Every structure is written in C-alpha cells, then in structure tokens.
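Next comes this protein:
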Amino acid sequence: MGIVFNKGGLFTTVQDYGRMGHQNLGFHVCGVMDRHSYWVANLLVDNTDREAVLEFTINGPTLYFTSDTVICITGGDFDPKINGESIPMYTAVEAHKGDELEMGFCRSGTWGYIAFAGGLDVPVVMGSRSTDIKCKLGGVEGRPIKDGDEIAFLSNVKSLHLMKERKLESPDYGSDVVDIRVTMGPQDDHFTEEGIDTFLNSEFSVTSQCDRMGYRLEGPVIEHNELGADIISDGIAKGAIQVPNSGQPIIMMSDRQTLGGYTKIANVISVDIPKVAQCRYPQKIRFSRVSVEEAQRIYGMERERLRLLNRRFIKKSIWHRLFNRWNM
C-alpha cells in the first residue's frame, strides 16, 4: 500500500542522494537538486538522510493515499493541500487512506520535495533509487512520473512521536539577488584578470534555460586569455561553473554530463548549491570567492547543525517512549 498519482505533475521523479561511484563508467550521479530541502524532509519524518523522496518542479503532482502515512513537504512553495485544505510545509503531517494531496504551481523557489515516513519501495540500481532519465535507470522505470503510476511504501508508518514538534521554519527564496560562494578553479588560469574581476564583481541573471542538467546565466562577458575556452575533457562536479566561448557561465547540476571540455572558472560550494537550485528566472546571482578551507569549515558547520537537529528529535523520541512506559 502506498500512493497513486492522479496527476503526475510537470516533471516529478524519484530521487535520493545520488548514484555515487559510477561517473567513470559514464553514468550520471543524478540525485536531488536541493540536498538541504531533501535532508530536512527526511529528518522530519524520521527517515535516514539517504532515503528516496519525490522531487518536482513548476507544477507538482496530485497523490491519492492508499494507506496511512506521515509526510513532509519542503523546498519551494507549492501551496500543498490535503482534501482541499492547506497544510504547512517543513512540518510532519499525517496523511490517511483515501486522502488526496494536491501540489499547485510553485509560488516561490523552483524544486519541491515530499518525504514519506518509511520510504518509497522502488528498485535500488547501482546503490541508488534516483531516476536517471537519460540512461533510463532507477525510480519508476527510469522516467518521470505519469498519471496513474503507483508506488508502495517500504514500511507503514502511521504516526511519529512528538508530531507537533516536527516542524521547522520555511526558507525565503524571494531575494532579487542571491549571493553564492565559490572556490576558484580548476581552470581559472584560462581567464584574464579582467575576466576574473567580471566574474566576481558582476551580477548574472538566471535565464529560462535551466533544468536538472545545468543553469545558464546571462551577464557581462567573462573574458578568456590566450589559453582559450577549450580544454581536454575532464570530470565535472556538481556546482562546477563552465564558461564556454560565449563568456556566459553555466552552473552544472545533478544531471550534468560526466565529462566536459570547457573551462571551469570556479565551483559553487556544496552548502550553496541548494540556493542555486531554488533560483528562478529572472533572479540574479552574485559570486564571491572563498578558500577551500573556508568551504570545508562552512560544510562542517552545516552538517553539525543538521546532526544536532536530528539528535534533538531522536533524544526526545527516546524520552517520550520511556515516559510512556513508566506511566503505563
């Protein structure tokens, strides 16, 4: 028992942390676009931080529940409703057999996530449940969700301890200009001093050409030096910022190609990649440089914050169980 899709939505897929360790064989990493929203959704329904979720954009799906469960919706604001009544985001919510969950058009941000307590029962392919559209792997037959699809739950979790406390504040994605931190390289030596200055001291607009593969930006031309824009193809990390001959940056995202032959001027630090993912046309992005050591420190702080948050719920759940035993 699980969910039936009355409407699949514009582009709904099953995603998790990603298909790691296979880029050398030509397989995409895939995985969620916004890992922070993904982690929080799973945390609030008591899942592990690698459990599969539904990811969607622009116009979300409509689901019918065939069994009771607990859900959490994070990411962009899709105005979720159960049986026509609005429900809060970033909050664990009980859903019952026969309920209909409707996700509307995205009012802010770009990508949304639904986590289900206990997880989704889809095949694990090369260590991941993530959908790889190009290779037709993972998820539901390696494709986006369509009307009438069904997915079962791995386990039936009808309620969680301390439900009223399982909520967090929703982020604000409405800034006109989004500040993104980067580490420079690996091919920043292919740019003139003026090109580097342009990259770090200009605003770049998010264009309509953005998808799970990459975000194309538009702004002042970033000038290459005599080494040019072409390189021998090498591996591409999530958040890598390619600058082809046009001088316009492209931020590589979850479904990026495994190799690329254009210069990469910098890489978005991992903590800020979710901020990029939730950008939408016509927001602007402004880049600032940090050292690798600073990026690692920021990442460590973010992981510690999530660890403490998770520990808080676990500890409270344990004390709640003990209290109930003592008072039986």
In short: Residues 318-328 have pLDDT under 50 and may be disordered. The two ends are 32 Å apart (CA to CA). The CA atoms of residues 204 and 301 lie 28 Å apart. The helical segments are 35-44, 193-200, 273-277, 292-326.
